[in-house]
Amino acid sequence: KRALEEREVCKVDDWARDQRVNRELAQRWGIGSAIIVPLVARERTLGLLVVTRGAPHPWSEEQLEAAETLAVQASVAIENARLYEEARAAYDHLKDAQQRLLQNERMALLGTFASGLAHEVRNPLNSIALQLSLLERRIASADARLLDQLDEVIGVIREEIPRLDALVGDFLFFSRMSRSSNVAS
Fold first, then answer.
1. What is the pLDDT of residue 181?
2. Residue 178 has pLDDT above 80, yes or no
3. Which long-range contacts (CB under 8 A, 24 or more apart) does 128-134 make?
4. How far apart are CA 117 and CA 154, in angstroms?
5. pLDDT of residue 87
6. What is the pLDDT of residues 41-82, one digit of tens each?
7. pTM score of the predicted model
8. Distance (Å, rounded) from C-alpha 121 to C-alpha 167?
9. Is residue 182 over pLDDT 70?
10. How far is CA 113 from its chain centroid?
């Protein structure tokens, strides 16, 4: 606990004789001696490096230095892994935002295309409907048999104009819905 809280290297040569030691844990884990080194990076405590032996053992200065060197390297590796994960998450977030932006641009382009297409289709449909009205007036004085035949053809054309206009309307409605749902996301 002290190594963690005070960021201090703790050396225990014999856990059975050291007052700082939780004897129950030492016995359960089969530890006779240990070196405990805090893992610190950028003024943050990341954890502890614990080097143990099953029997009591007096630790040398070289062994303490080796444990401290290992702890420094482990701290750097842990901090680098954390920084890498943060960078990766930021990259993924940026990539997702870029994908949403591209999708929104595609939908805006589709909406512009749909509006233009609707305009280009509805203008000729209106012109056809107007020309049919003119044609009906001109043939009103035609032979009755020819008038019946022409009325049938004109009727079919009149039925198809609203159908085409409804299809164009559905296409526009779909493109608006897609754009609005994309903008909302």
1. 62
2. no
3. 128/157, 128/161, 129/158, 129/161, 132/157, 132/158, 132/161
4. 25
5. 97
6. 988 999 999 999 999 999 999 999 999 999 999 999 999 999
7. 0.57
8. 10
9. no
10. 28
Alpha carbons 127 and 133: distance in angstroms, whole number: 10
Question: 56 and 15 in contact (C-beta within 8 Å)?
Answer: yes
How is residue 118 written in tokens? 């609707």
Q: Which residue type, as a one-letter code, is found at position 45?
A: T
Q: Exposed (0-12), middle (13-18) or buried (19+): which is 37, by Cβ within 10 Å? A: buried
CA–CA gap between residue 72 and residue 69 (Å, rounded): 5
Given the structure tokens 């001696």, which residue do they identify?
Answer: 33
Distance CA 179, CA 185 (A): 10
| DSSP H helices in the chain | 2-6, 23-29, 61-139, 144-184
